[in-house]
Amino acid sequence: MNDKIQALRESFRAELDRVQTLQQLEEMRVSFLGKKGKVTEALRGMGAMTDEMKRTLGRETNELKTAITVALAERMEAIRQMELQRQLDATPDFDVSMPPRLDQGSYHPITLVQRQCEQVFRSMGFTVEDYGEVVTDYECFESLNIPPFHPARDMQDTYYLENGQLLKSQTSAAQNAIYRRYRDALVNDGVPIRAIFPGRCFRNEATDACHENTFFQMEGVMVDKDISISNLIYFMKTMLSEVFQRDIKVRLRPGFFPFVEPGFELDISCLICGGTGCASCKHSGWLELCPCGMIHPRVLEEGGIDPEKYTGFAFGLGLTRLAMMKYGVADIRDLNSGSLVRLRQFTGE
Ligand code: FA5
Known about the structure:
Elements: H1 3-18, H2 22-33, H3 38-42, H4 51-90, H5 109-123, E1 127-128, E2 134-135, H6 137-140, E3 166-167, H7 175-189, E4 193-202, E5 214-224, H8 229-244, E6 250-254, E7 260-269, E8 286-288, E9 292-295, H9 297-302, E10 311-318, H10 319-327, H11 340-347
Parallel strand pairs: 1-4
Antiparallel strand pairs: 2-3, 4-5, 5-10, 6-7, 7-8, 7-9, 9-10
Helix pairs in contact: 1-4, 2-4, 5-8, 5-10
Bound molecules: adenosine-5'-[phenylalaninyl-phosphate].
Adenosine-5'-[phenylalaninyl-phosphate] (FA5) binds next to strand 5, strand 7, strand 9, strand 10 and helix 10.
């Protein structure tokens, strides 16, 4: 074999072993096979050769070109495989060949049940009000006949900001503002106050199957002349039969809340266990769903409404618990889990 061709073969092999990237490989191809490359260079001085030598050199050159082309192609494939493996190693849990999963969201069970309640109450002439989550002590407690150090505060420990404001522990915190917003229309034009205000509530308490530290309530108030407990019971019954679309066993028992007099606890028979008792209903067969009562005269007065002329009822529906009963969610904590798989199994969406 021609000495130059032999030397080229050896230098090509040595260089090829050092090549790591496709870029280096391309540079090598140009340096050996390009127009002014080393192989073309090796043919210089051919003019002075005999025909026999020319033929031999031509054949050996062509063989070298073929060998270089094949070796470059093999190396290119090897580098591509190495690169792919490097990417796979860098993302060990990501299977690049897996088809994408089209995970679509759906409405949360609490949103669905809230919208349903809103629709029922709207059809009965109630307005739907929005209210903040950060409130003052006055809004959450004092305006509701719960002065500082009142024992009723113990039931509703919540989260406090450094400026003294707090995350509302009950939607009742909006009552005073609602009375003040609508009292002129009530007094001057005889328009009854009928409002619901759904919202997120917070309590600093231990969680279990039916208690969360963050949950939803929906407050409702109605104030007019001659409002009585029968009105309250009528609205509660209508709401429940619309939401569940069937007869639900309920019970009304006395309950104490400083902002109503008289006050009641409205419980529904637990739909998770059918009333036999389970973790969702603290093994009592009943679930506290909607405390309610006739608005305390002092609370009306604080809202600028004369309690001698007007009466009203208020209720505080546990929306999260209602969603549990409606969709058969045995553990309230599933509703805050944020897991699409878990949530979708309840709503079927
Ligand atoms: C109240 O919050 C009163 N503001 C309700 C009220 C309004 C009474 C108007 C009278 C007139 P209570 O603390 O019981 O009451 O809560 C009301 C409902 O919210 C409960 O029946 C329950 O359904 C729900 N609830 C209370 N605490 C939690 C919690 N930690 N997790 C989930 N739901 C809760």
